[in-house]
Amino acid sequence: MDVNTVEFSAPGKIILFGEHAVVYKHPAIAAAIDLRAISSISASSEQISILSVPDLFPKKLFDLNLTPLPENLTALKFVIDSLLEVTESCKNPTIEISSQIPLSAGLGSSAAVSVSLIAGFSKFLGMDFDLHEINKLAYETEKIIHSFPSGIDNTISTYGGGILYENGVMKELSFQLSSNYIVIINSLIPRNTKDLVESVRKKYEKNPSAIQGIFHNIHNIVIDAEKALKAGDLAQIGELMSSNHQLLRDLGVSHRTLDEIVKILDEKRALGSKLTGAGGGGCVISLFDDYHRATEVVELMKEKNLQAFISNFSNDGVRNELY
Ligand code: MEV
Question: Which of 17, 165, 172, 272 is the most exposed place for a label (fewest CB within 10 A)?
C-alpha cells in the first residue's frame, strides 16, 4: 500500500571497542546513541522529485530528475535509484533529510542517514522492507561512501541497542553500563573514514605481521570487554578502553588533539578514554563512575571550544516517527 507522508529516523553510534580491526573480520562492540538522522518523505505536489538536505545545503532544493547532484549526495541518489528500480510506483517524492549527529566525527552519521532514507523511501513506495533488507541496502550504500566498510555502522543503526559484530554477523549485547557514564568529546577535527581505513590498509600491506599483532591485541580486548560489559565492571571497562586507545595510536589513527583530550580526561580521573570510530580527528569517548565529575568534564571541554555531552544509549534502531 502506498502512503503519502512518512518519517523514519535512525540512530548514530559509538564504537566502544574494536574499530579498524573489525574491517579485518575481528570482533568489535558498538552501541546506538540517542542522536538521530531523520528522513521525511511526502508526495510532491509538482511533477518533480525533490531532495533537500538543509544541514549540508541550506535552502537548496535538488530536482532528482535533472540535477547532477553534488558528490556528497551520491550515496543518497544511489538509495533513491535502487529503490525506484524495483518499484512500480511512479509517485514523485519530496525528500528532506536532517540529522542531529555531528558530521565526519566518527558517530555514524552517514549510515544513519542511509538507514533512515531506505526505511522511509521504501515505505513511501509501498515496499515493506524488513530490518534485514534495510541493513543490506545500507551496507551497499556504505560501500559507496567508505569503499571497504565492515558493516558495523549500518548494522548498529538499523538494529539499535548494543552489539558485538564480527565478520558480518551481529550478536545482541545488553550492557549493565548506565549510559550516564559515557561522555563524548568532539575534537571538531574533520576526518574521512575512507582515507583512514585506506591508510591502515597500506600499513597492513607494508608490514602485515606488525599490524596483525595490533589487531590480535585489539581482538583480545574486545573479548575481555564483552565479559566486563556483561558484568558491569566499570573499572575493567575503563582500563580496556585506555588500552584500546593505545593500540589505535600504535596503528597510527589517533591525532595529537585526541591524545591531548585523553590525557586531560585521565587527569580528571576518567576510568578510561579512547577515540571512537575511524580516528584521525572526530570524537573521544570517556567513562566515568561519577555523574558530577562527568558533567564537570563536559563544561571543561566546552571551555576549550570543543563539543562535549553525556551520551545516552538508544535501544531503538530505525524507527517510524509517525506512528
Ligand atoms: C567504523 O565506524 C570505523 C571503522 O572500523 C571502519 C568500519 O568498520 O567500516 C574504522
Answer: 172
How many angstroms separate the alpha carbon of residue 309 from the centre of ligand 1? 22
Cell numbers given for 151 = 558493516
Of 153, 233, 259, 289, which residue is the catalytic one? 153
DSSP letters spanning 32-78: EEEEEEEEEEEE-SSSS-EEE-TTTSTT--EETTTPPPPGGGHHHHH
Q: Which CATH number fits domain 179-310: 3.30.70.890, 2.40.160.10, 3.30.160.20, 3.30.470.20?
A: 3.30.70.890
| Domain range 5-174, CATH class | alpha beta
User: Does the CB atom of residue 29 touch ligand 1 within 6 A?
Assistant: no
Specify the pTM: 0.96
C-alpha cell of 71?
558528490
CA of 31 to the centre of ligand 1 (A): 13
Domain boundaries along the sequence of the chain: 5-174, 179-310
What is the CA(177)–ligand 1 centre distance, in A? 23
Q: Is 19 in the pocket of ligand 1 (CB under 6 A)?
A: yes
Angle between helices 256-267 and 234-250 (to 10 degrees): 160
Note if 289 is an active site residue.
Answer: no
pLDDT tens-digit readout, 216-225? 999 999 999 9
- What is the pLDDT at residue 92? 86
